[in-house]
Design a protein that fits this description.
Layout: E1 2-5, E2 10-18, E3 33-34, E4 43-50, E5 56-61, E6 66-74, E7 77-80, E8 89-94, E9 98-106, H1 112-116, E10 119-129, E11 132-137, E12 155-157
Parallel strand pairs: 3-6
Antiparallel strand pairs: 1-2, 2-9, 4-5, 4-10, 5-6, 6-7, 8-9, 10-11, 10-12
Length: about 160
């Protein structure tokens, strides 16, 4: 995974998967739109929290270019944001042994505070293979995968100096 915060107030995330890509169930590309229950298939996720706060946003990015955003007030407590203005840019590249998904999130769609705050990120992937699911994250703080666990928000990003 590669993450960077741009001067244009965007968060750029690249997810990379290496291996026999033919063994991964990849949803077919469609028109970018809000989706539901994207984690039931191959999906990449970003959890974005302000430093020292329990509230966070959950982004789901599907290879189909469907996406969704949840505003969570605390651990697993929140709601879907059916707001087309949050539309992240999603691009997919795939070969026989490499899959890459790029997602660009505009931080100003979350709040003005996100533009100048330290962010804590949890980055994860749900991979649907022919034999079942695997769950990947920067950090798994408990025996079972739980991407909502604040201890899995392992990456800290400082705001860019202006």
């Amino acid at each position: 995974m590669l993450v960077r915060r741009s001067a244009g107030d965007e968060l750029h995330i690249t997810y990379s998967v290496d291996g026999d890509i033919s063994q991964i169930q990849i949803p077919s590309p469609t028109t970018p739109r809000i989706g539901t229950e994207l984690w039931r298939h191959t999906c990449f996720e970003a959890f974005i929290a302000l430093d020292s706060q329990s509230a966070y946003h959950e982004f789901n990015f599907a290879p189909s270019r469907e996406w969704c955003v949840y505003a969570m007030s605390s651990y697993r407590s929140g709601r879907l944001l059916a707001d087309e203005t949050m539309n992240p840019q999603i691009a997919l590249r795939s070969t026989d042994n490499h899959l890459e998904l790029d997602a660009v999130v505009r931080l100003d769609t979350l709040s003005a505070i996100h533009l100048r705050a330290v962010l804590r990120l949890g980055l994860s992937a749900v991979i649907e293979e022919t034999g079942g699911f695997t769950y990947w994250a920067l950090r798994h703080p408990s025996p079972k995968p739980d991407f909502h666990n604040a201890a899995s928000f392992a990456l800290s990003l400082d705001p860019l100096s202006r």
